Amino acid sequence: MSETETKVEMTNNKLYIGNLAPTVNEDSLRDLLKDKSGSVPTSVLVKRGGYAFVECKDPAAAEKAIESLNGFSFMGTELLVEPSVPQNKRMFNLEESKFQLFGANCDHNGKPPVLLNKRTNG
């Protein structure tokens, strides 16, 4: 890390792990996390689409898991490991084909705005 870069402290203990091989299950992912990050996750949920959500015991353990597993080759695929973002805080951007955070300047009590579809007769 260069002098101009600053490390952002992790405040979330939940992770998204993407690009999983179809044969990965909760036990194999739990064992990998234990071996590579030195910490046993609190919960692991592997989804059929090749991704998983993992809850670590604390933000420091989550950060260590990201550092040790992001880009790591596991069962023939390179893992993508990053902090999990709640679904209501994501928005799909078709131009860039990636998720982006939104709602920081929103005056809706922290909730995303509601879009209304007005129907006109005539």
Report on the structure:
The chain has 122 residues and is α+β, with helices and mostly antiparallel strands. It has helices at residues 26-37, 59-69; strands at residues 14-18, 43-47, 51-55, 73-74, 77-78, 80-83, 90-93, 98-101. Strand 7 and strand 8 (98-101) form a beta hairpin. The radius of gyration is 18 Å and the shape is globular. One of its GO terms (biological process) is mRNA processing. GO terms for molecular function: mRNA binding.
How does the SSE layout of this entry go?
Elements: E1 14-18, H1 26-37, E2 43-47, E3 51-55, H2 59-69, E4 73-74, E5 77-78, E6 80-83, E7 90-93, E8 98-101
Antiparallel strand pairs: 1-3, 1-6, 2-3, 4-5, 7-8
Largest sheet: 4 strands, antiparallel
Question: What is the percent of helical residues?
Answer: 10-25%
The ordered H/E elements are: EHEEHEEEEE
The amount of beta strand, in percent, is 25-35%
Briefly, what is this?
By secondary structure, this protein is of the alpha+beta class.
Quickly list its features.
single chain, 122 residues, alpha+beta, 4-stranded antiparallel beta sheet, two-stranded antiparallel ribbon, 2 helices, 19% helix, globular, disordered N terminus, RNA-binding
